[in-house]
Specification:
The structure is a single chain. The chain is an alpha+beta fold and 204 residues long. The chain has 2 domains: 11-77, no CATH class; 92-199, no CATH class. 28% of the residues lie in helices and 20% in strands. It is built from 6 helices and 9 strands. The strands form 3 sheets. The protein has a 4-stranded antiparallel β-sheet, with helices on one face. Strands 2-1-3 form a 3-stranded antiparallel β-sheet. Strands 8-9 form a two-stranded antiparallel sheet.
């Protein structure tokens, strides 16, 4: 099939992770506000439910989602976190001897692995294989770290600011890794088999 300019402009993106949906990839339509409909990729369906979005054709009262919200409200009342436990990328004894930039890399990787973007990257890796990755602390007072993940035909770049209300955000994405600045292509991290980004730091 010949891909025309019109077909390219009609490519759909996921309303949550903003990933361009692959040709032939099925999406589910959700309504964030009860009126308009948006596409959600298979990797982000749980997030759409947690946000209270209504699936196209479903009843107007999301019973399952209300139940989730009540459980979350109860836990927040007692100050408990409902976030799934994510194993740290570096053991405690190693953490004590790391430099400040290395500690920033470890913290950034931990925050990324706790975010919904982890599932996005792990899902793409199932189709495109293991990516190259880098974690680069930026100089400045806001402790911002840039995490880049790249395949031969696609790349994603995230900005991680630990003290921010939204510590992990998708900053940029593209199709050709050569578009990335050279400072972000040191490839000093990797994607593990269980879908976590880990910095390549020597244990000794």
């Amino acid at each position: 099939m010949r891909i025309t300019r019109q077909a390219v402009t009609a490519l759909r993106t996921c309303a949550i992770c903003e990933r361009s949906l692959l040709v032939g990839e099925r999406s589910v339509r959700y309504s964030p506000d009860g009126e308009s409909l948006v596409d959600v990729c298979p990797l982000c369906l749980d997030i759409a439910l947690e946000h209270g979005w209504l699936k196209e054709g479903s009843p107007t009262t999301p019973v399952v989602n209300d139940r989730r919200r009540r459980r979350r409200g109860l836990s927040s009342l007692f100050g408990e976190s409902r976030k799934p436990a994510v194993e740290r990328v570096v053991d405690e004894p190693i953490l004590r001897r790391l430099s400040e930039p290395e500690l920033a890399m470890v913290e950034a990787a931990d925050l990324f692995n706790e975010s919904a973007f982890r599932r996005t990257i792990a899902g793409i890796a199932k189709s495109l294989g293991s990516p190259r990755a880098s974690i680069v602390p930026l100089s400045g007072t806001n402790n911002e770290v840039v995490l880049s993940v790249a395949w031969d035909i696609s790349w994603y770049q995230y900005r991680i600011t630990p003290d921010s209300a939204q510590p992990v955000r998708l900053a940029e994405r593209g199709h050709d890794p050569r578009e990335l600045e050279s400072m972000f292509t040191s490839w000093n991290a990797k994607l593990t088999q269980d879908g976590r980004i880990t910095p390549e730091i020597s244990p000794v």
